[in-house]
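Hello,

Following up on my earlier ticket. Below are the two sequence lines again, exactly as submitted.
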Amino acid sequence: MAILSVRHVSRSFEGLVALNDVSIDVEPETIVGVIGPNGAGKTTLFNILTGFYRPTSGEVWFLDKRVDGLPMHKIAAAGISRTFQNIRLFSNMTAIENVLVGQHLHLGTNIATAVLRPPATTRAERRAVEQSAEHLRFAGLAGRENELARNLAYGEQRRLEIARALAVRPRLLLLDEPTAGMNAGESMAMMKLIRELRDDLQVTVILIEHQMRVVMGVCERISVLDYGEKIAEGTPSEVQRDQRVIEAYLGTGQLKRQDAGS
Amino acid sequence: MVQQRRRLPRSLTSEALRERIDRMRATSGGAQLFRFGPYALLPLLGAIAALSPALLSTRLTFLLILIVAYLMMRIVDNLYGVAVLALALALLPTAMDGFERNIMFNVALYTVLGIGLNVVVGYAGLLDLGYVAFFAAGAYLYALVVAPDAGASEWAQNWDLGLTFWPVLPLALVAAALIGVALGVPVLRLRGDYLAIVTLGFGEIIRIMANNEDYYTSGPRGLFLLPKPPFFGRELDTAQELYFVVLVVAFVAVFAAERIRDSRVGRAWEAIREDEDVASSMGIDTTVYKLLAFAIGAAIGGVGGVIVAAKQGSVFPTDFNLDVSINVLALVIIGGMGNVRGILLGALLVVGLPDVLRDFNLDLGFVTFQNVGADYRLVIFGAALVAVMVLRPEGLLPSRRRAAEFREAELLEQEYAT
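Thanks for your patience. The regenerated structure is below:
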């Protein structure tokens, strides 16, 4: 039973077709990669899954509930959380405050309880702080709780985005290029963290990634997009051998011969 | 699902975090030295207040107090510093004449308004240039429901509700909050400049309505002979007594605003201000939280309106000019956005200073300029505002976050420059 089912989703922007009839099923507790050349529609897919865009046609089902077209905060409440390709932290808030914002759905404080602060609210707040610290620790940011997000190193910021997304307590986590701009060592550490997300926290992960070493190393299933269409799907080794994928990434043999001739 | 799998080390519990933050605050800016500063400053303030009629011109006292208050608030960046200041403010009017008590009343009133607007602008980041609307709503509500027949509009004469000041306060709170939501709904999608322009228009609409809805408001003739707040069989009718009323309201507002800021609600506002899309992807219903900010800001403004109507004993449409919105915004920005202490200081400067300057004479020994203050006070005031904005664009006492935002902007500028 798939946790996420993308059914014939299309999205066009004023005639430009960013996604065309894409269907993807994601099994619970798997790590799925979405790859494809620039402009293939990967981030558009993420934006549809998180409610940033509505699909032009097609449906998205998550945990047997239709979620396409829901506002973003409802989708977050349903259990989908994400990180961003260009890091989008609350840069003037501290690391732990960033994570505390992620806890929003799991605190019940309203205006009255915020002002009067009954013991239950104080307890809940303390628990939220402890849990946020735990999320930070999980993401490898122990000791950095009170650092402003924008003062964190680049790799730490990527990790903080993951910690913040975890605070929403998602069943499905979408990572948009988690290792972009990282060196080999940092990428390895990120791969380890992604595996822990699934192994320790039972979170299903979909990631967009360009570094093939990461994709092949960490993903169990891969979907390949090209010009808004899904051109291949399968295990890493299947995808690597797929003729259409090779063409999408390297061009066709036809072109090669022409190049050689000229 | 995320579960707590490992026991949390004590160093990461909330108390430990809070202690660490407190320690960071205490050690910043040489504050360690002045840990007991407020205790020392309190008798100083008291001495100034007590001696002032004898030794100093009282206007000069006001300026001194301004400076001491500024120093104190810079040194002690916590609620307790404000409490000390509160005590000082409470003692102050005893050493003042009626004119100065009026100034202090206005300062306290504008502090209340500043706290309200700060919820909208400082916390949620929604630029509201029509804040006077809520102030006017509160004032007119009071005038309409308590007015005696003599100074009342036709409507009020037909509907004698017989309410007094105290029950109207919560009534105005709720009514203004509803008006805040009513303004909020159509402007939800607007950001930045566009929001500012629409709210500006809203403020003017309310004033023009007050001017034209003759049946309800008596138009430009205004509503007058309004009763003062009753208090155990008598009326609070001096500037000093009403100053205490508004002081109490100010402290309730400070208390509530700071607690809301430090809660889930405040964090949600901050997140919206930083990045609205990301905030909603964290599960924050941005519509609800923006409306909530408008409602709370408006509610506080409405309460301010009731108080000012009771103090003046009258309301006229001209009391609710654009100036009010601009002054409140100016004091929030100059004081330091997002920071309650900054707002108090901003109110002292923006509202208090122009009046204090009124009878300031410049004596250079060989030549004396009479009435420099009266003639040039707004020039001096304007120059002071420009100076503050040039030298400290983040405001005199910005919140930590606000200061961070400004540094970020500066760094970006430097990056572009190189």
